[in-house]
């Protein structure tokens, strides 16, 4: 990767005793030419080498040594330099310049004249005096001339100069001597230069590399570590290094130094950043100007300080502007649903210059008097979370019922926690409503007998009111219920050796809580010998057979002996409704009660309505071997959740259990394909309310009663099965092409959610107030008797051709009016007998209401005897049904309007009557007859006043 490169030699820095000459990488240890005075080397014998002054080619005076004993044999002339201190050197270069006379050009020297000389050295740690011992010298080489000269004197200037360089080393002592041995040549030693090579100190990549002597070998590179210049630091894992070559050149730079934070590079040095500038990291090349809302007034800063009121989050890089906490969220609104509060808000006007704004909610529960608030604690749930909210909404759950809460919503960003300024938040104070109790937990089986199981349990953690009773649901195959006032109960009349599942839920004024966990308990085995024949089907058959035989014997016998005895034997035959919720696997319930249809048998034709879970279509169903029939197809919209699918199919699990001409018939379901479908018989005329409105006044009373009879029969069937509808209303009755009415819209209580009439009440849960019995509104007591109340409303809807019950009164006013005893008046042209039946259905005491069975009987009677229906409105002021127990005082029994109004608790309207000119009972009676209004139901006064005294409202 790194190619060899030669570092330019520095021109100046020389911190060595010996000045480098020529090549700047050289350190000269000896240069005979440079010396002007006598060299005073040692020459031995004295007539050998001789020091002679001369001029070089540039006429510069030089000192030379010469010898020329060519005529004498056996010459051995030594010349030794002064001691040369080697310094750091390892490899020493010896450069010799000399001239040498060609022996051939000298007459008479054959045999004695030589053309070479020998070069020696001796290492010592110090000077060793002026004696010269040959054997202490090490020979370096025999030096021969490349060129010898033939003409002229030895001192002649135009001699042919030879240059020879020899290298010695590695040397181990502090210094050395050089010696020249002449063995009979004619030589002039013009210059002797001794040097070594060195890489000179250099700054490269902001690192200083010191003077470095080259290695001892010709090929070696010396690795040198650099030192960062001041205010610079080594780059991580990349420390600076260079290599000093044998030639004294820097090669192969590796790594580097970089200027520290707060400093930037200028040439070979690091300089501090100026004021108002910063450099946060050594990695940055340049100093940068301080970002917005920050400053510094020092040189060499690695960061800038934030202005007052502005901050930098720990994770913020130094390069971003200083920011501040956001302002408070805006437009905080809330929505309470019992003990759940939803908050929504808009983002703050000022995000503080950041885009990491989130929200947090602080919940405090406050006492009323004196107002003191404490944190809500860990029992409160937040969805999606309490803090770190990215979206502008949150739902807070599991609050206490009837409690006062304050919620603060704060917008926070990355610098909120650094700010010491006051928190900015939006706040609301909210009072929660009533809520059902939380789950009953820890059900313990106290005692298990053959026919009874004794249980005890813990009160729910959040009763949310006074628990008035507990409901214990237990079932073998079908659900059974048991009510308990305390937290223990013994459930009797069970079957021996049978597994029962128990679930308990608490009840308060606010209604039922959810069921606790299932507990399975098996009753004890039957004691041997005792027979509980009615539990065993084989025994039942045997007993029935025996009983039947006896009855038959009795009947035949009685018939024979003169019909003296009449016997009536009733066997229970009605199926019982099974709550699909009791199935652990809801899919099993669907497939137990509903037929799985092949989607290819269904042809969807058009969309006819919108259900809660998806479109309702009409189409045709053609099952193999059967003729095709019109069907309504309820579809489950795509993208449903598992819960939605369960709830959707729940209706089929319920409907599939019913088989009655006045209950909408389920053909089957498609669960193994998409879309998931519920296929129902097609009801050509759609919902009853719309149908009646469309045909206002077009039917005879008998036709209307016929419809009502059908609905009552369907409801009788359902109540006999133990099914409570909870949402009986004309909109949930379907009408086919033969005007047959069928009850529809099944589902568990929550399916009421899909009823647009259903509204939240203070007792929790959504309730279609106008159709619902007071006890169901008040404490969610839904029974067949509350269905009867709803049936009365349906009667009123039918007889008024789809008029809205209680017209435009508010739900609150309706609840109040019913509580005060008011009831809907007879619709126009409604036979009083029918209105009376309605009033019966609206008895406050649910035990007083007729049963569906009785209602079917009364309607049948009316149909059989239409005269009862013909009685005109207003003439029949007294009840005709034995069921009616009207407690309203008789209008004729009073002496004055005041007394009458007082008796019916309407005295506050006395002035209205007087102002309108009705001051005597006679005038009221006259008006009553003229207007065809029957005053026996106090509620009529409200209607009357609404219509006739427009300026007053009897209902506050
Ligand atoms: P639902 O989801 O049951 O409230 O149905 C929505 C609408 O679809 C109803 O209001 C009816 O108009 C229509 N619908 C439901 N079932 C049938 C059916 N069996 N025959 C005809 N129309 C139906």
Outline the structure in words:
The structure is a single chain. Strands 1, 3, 4, 7, 10, 12 and 15 form a seven-stranded antiparallel sheet that branches. Strands 2, 5, 6, 8, 9 and 11 form a six-stranded antiparallel sheet that branches. Strands 38, 39, 41, 42 and 43 form a five-stranded antiparallel sheet that branches. The longest helix has 24 residues. Helix 2 runs parallel beside helix 3 and helix 5 packs antiparallel against helix 7. The radius of gyration is 59 Å and the shape is rod-shaped. 17% of the residues lie in helices and 28% in strands. It has 956 residues and is of the alpha+beta class.
Ordered list of secondary-structure elements with their pairings:
Layout: E1 26-31, E2 42-44, E3 50-55, E4 61-68, E5 77-80, E6 84-85, E7 92-100, E8 116-124, E9 138-144, E10 162-168, E11 175-182, E12 186-199, E13 202-204, E14 207-209, E15 212-213, E16 222-225, E17 227-228, E18 232-234, E19 241-244, E20 250-254, E21 257-259, E22 263-266, E23 269-272, E24 277-278, E25 288-289, E26 294-295, E27 305-306, E28 330-337, E29 340-346, E30 358-366, E31 373-375, E32 381-383, E33 393-397, E34 404-412, E35 425-431, E36 444-448, E37 453-456, E38 469-475, E39 479-484, E40 488-491, E41 499-508, E42 511-512, E43 519-522, H1 537-560, H2 586-593, E44 602-610, E45 615-621, E46 629-635, H3 642-655, E47 666-670, E48 677-681, H4 688-694, H5 701-720, E49 733-735, E50 741-743, E51 759-760, E52 766-767, H6 774-779, H7 784-799, H8 811-819, H9 832-841, H10 852-864, H11 867-870, H12 897-903, H13 910-915, H14 921-931, H15 939-948
Antiparallel strand pairs: 1-12, 2-5, 3-4, 4-12, 5-11, 6-11, 7-10, 7-12, 8-9, 8-11, 12-15, 13-14, 14-17, 16-19, 18-21, 19-20, 22-23, 24-25, 26-27, 28-29, 29-33, 30-31, 30-34, 32-33, 34-35, 36-37, 37-40, 38-39, 38-41, 41-42, 41-43, 44-45, 45-46, 46-48, 47-48, 49-50, 51-52
Helix pairs in contact: 2-3, 5-7, 5-10, 7-9
The chain binds adenosine monophosphate.
């Amino acid at each position: 990767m790194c190619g060899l490169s030669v570092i330019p030699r520095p021109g100046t820095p020389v911190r060595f005793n010996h000045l480098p000459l020529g090549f700047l990488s050289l350190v000269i240890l000896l240069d005979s030419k440079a010396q002007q005075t006598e060299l005073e080397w040692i020459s031995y014998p004295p007539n050998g080498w001789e020091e002679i002054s001369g001029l070089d080619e540039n006429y510069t005076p030089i000192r030379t040594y010469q010898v020329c004993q060519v005529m004498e044999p056996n010459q051995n002339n030594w010349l030794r330099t002064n001691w040369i201190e080697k310094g750091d050197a390892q490899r020493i270069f010896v450069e010799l310049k000399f001239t040498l006379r060609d022996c051939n050009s000298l007459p008479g020297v054959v045999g004695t004249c030589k053309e070479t000389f020998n070069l020696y050295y001796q290492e010592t740690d110090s000077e060793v005096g002026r004696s010269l011992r040959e054997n202490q010298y090490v020979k370096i080489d025999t030096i021969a001339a490349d060129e010898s000269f033939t003409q002229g004197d030895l001192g002649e200037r135009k001699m042919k100069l030879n240059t020879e360089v020899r290298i010695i080393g590695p040397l181990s002592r502090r210094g050395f001597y050089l010696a020249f041995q002449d063995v009979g040549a004619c030589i002039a030693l013009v210059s002797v230069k001794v040097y070594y090579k060195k890489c000179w100190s250099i700054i490269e990549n902001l690192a200083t590399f010191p003077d470095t002597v080259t290695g001892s070998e010709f090929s070696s590179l010396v690795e040198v570590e650099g030192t960062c210049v001041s205010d610079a630091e080594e780059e991580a894992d990349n420390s600076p290094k260079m290599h000093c070559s044998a030639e004294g050149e820097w090669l192969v730079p590796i790594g580097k130094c970089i200027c520290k934070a707060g400093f930037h590079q200028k040439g070979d040095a690091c300089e501090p950043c100026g004021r108002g500038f910063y450099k946060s990291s050594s990695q940055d090349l340049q100093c940068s100007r301080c970002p917005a809302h920050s400053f510094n007034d020092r040189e060499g800063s690695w960061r800038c300080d934030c202005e007052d009121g502005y901050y930098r989050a720990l994770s913020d890089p130094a390069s971003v502007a200083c920011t501040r906490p956001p302002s408070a969220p805006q437009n905080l609104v809330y929505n309470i649903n019992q003990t759940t509060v939803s908050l929504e808000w808009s983002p703050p006007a000022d995000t503080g210059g950041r885009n990491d704004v989130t929200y947090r909610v602080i919940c405090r529960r406050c006492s009323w008097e004196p107002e003191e608030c404490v944190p809500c604690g860990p029992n409160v749930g937040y969805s999606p979370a309490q803090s770190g909210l990215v979206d502008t909404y949150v739902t807070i759950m599991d609050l206490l019922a009837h409690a006062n809460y304050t919620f603060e919503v704060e917008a926070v960003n990355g610098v909120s926690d650094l700010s010491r300024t006051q928190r900015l938040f939006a706040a609301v104070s909210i009072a929660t409503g009533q809520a059902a109790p939380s789950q009953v937990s820890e059900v313990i089986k106290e005692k298990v007998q053959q026919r009874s199981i004794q249980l005890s349990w813990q009160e729910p953690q959040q009763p949310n009111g006074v628990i008035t009773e507990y409901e214990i649901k237990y079932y073998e195959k079908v659900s059974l219920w048991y009510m308990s006032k305390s937290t223990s109960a013994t459930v009797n009349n069970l079957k021996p050796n049978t597994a029962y599942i128990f679930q308990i839920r608490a009840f308060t004024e606010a209604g039922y809580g959810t069921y606790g966990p299932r507990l399975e308990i098996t009753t004890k085995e039957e004691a041997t010998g005792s027979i509980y024949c009615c539990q065993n089907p084989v025994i039942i058959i045997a007993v029935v057979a025996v009983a039947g035989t006896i009855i038959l014997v009795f009947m035949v016998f009685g018939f024979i002996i003169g019909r003296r005895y009449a016997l009536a034997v009733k066997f229970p035959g009605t199926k019982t409704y099974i709550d699909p919720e009791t199935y652990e696997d809801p899919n099993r319930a669907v497939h137990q009660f509903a037929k799985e249809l092949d989607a290819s048998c269904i042809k969807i034709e058009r969309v006819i309505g919108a259900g809660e879970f998806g479109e309702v279509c009409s189409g045709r169903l053609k099952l193999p071997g059967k003729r095709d029939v019109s069907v309504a197809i309820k579809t489950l919209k795509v993208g449903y959740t598992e819960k939605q699918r369960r709830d959707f199919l729940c209706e089929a699990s319920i409907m599939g259990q019913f088989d009655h001409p006045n209950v909408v018939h389920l053909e089957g379901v498609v669960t193994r394909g998409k879309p998931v479908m519920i296929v129902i018989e097609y009801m050509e005329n759609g919902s009853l309310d719309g149908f009646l409105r469309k045909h206002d006044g077009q039917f005879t009373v008998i036709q209307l009663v016929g419809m009502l009879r059908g609905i009552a029969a369907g409801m009788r069937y359902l109540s006999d099965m133990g099914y409570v509808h909870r949402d009986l209303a004309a909109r949930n009755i379907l009408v086919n092409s033969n005007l047959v009415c069928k009850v529809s819209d099944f589902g568990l209580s929550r399916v009421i959610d899909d009823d647009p009439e259903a509204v939240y009440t203070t007792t929790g849960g959504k309730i279609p107030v106008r159709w619902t019995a007071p006890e169901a509104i008040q404490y969610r007591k839904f029974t067949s008797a509350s269905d009867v109340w709803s049936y009365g409303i349906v009667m009123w809807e039918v007889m008024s051709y789809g008029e809205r019950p209680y017209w435009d009164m508010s739900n609150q006013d309706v609840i109040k009016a019913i509580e005060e005893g008011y009831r809907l008046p007879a619709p126009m042209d409604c036979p009083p007998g029918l209105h009376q039946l309605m009033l019966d259905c609206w008895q406050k005491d649910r035990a007083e209401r007729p049963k569906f069975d009785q209602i079917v009987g009364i309607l049948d009677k009316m149909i059989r005897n239409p005269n009862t229906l013909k009685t005109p409105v207003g003439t029949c002021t007294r009840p005709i049904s034995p069921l009616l127990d009207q407690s309203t005082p008789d209008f004729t029994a009073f002496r004055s309007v005041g007394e009458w109004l007082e008796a019916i608790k309407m005295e506050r309207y006395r002035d209205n009557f007087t102002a309108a000119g009705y001051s005597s009972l006679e005038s009221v009676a006259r008006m009553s007859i003229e207007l065809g209004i029957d005053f026996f139901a106090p509620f009529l006064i409200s209607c009357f006043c609404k219509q006739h005294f427009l300026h007053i409202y009897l209902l506050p």
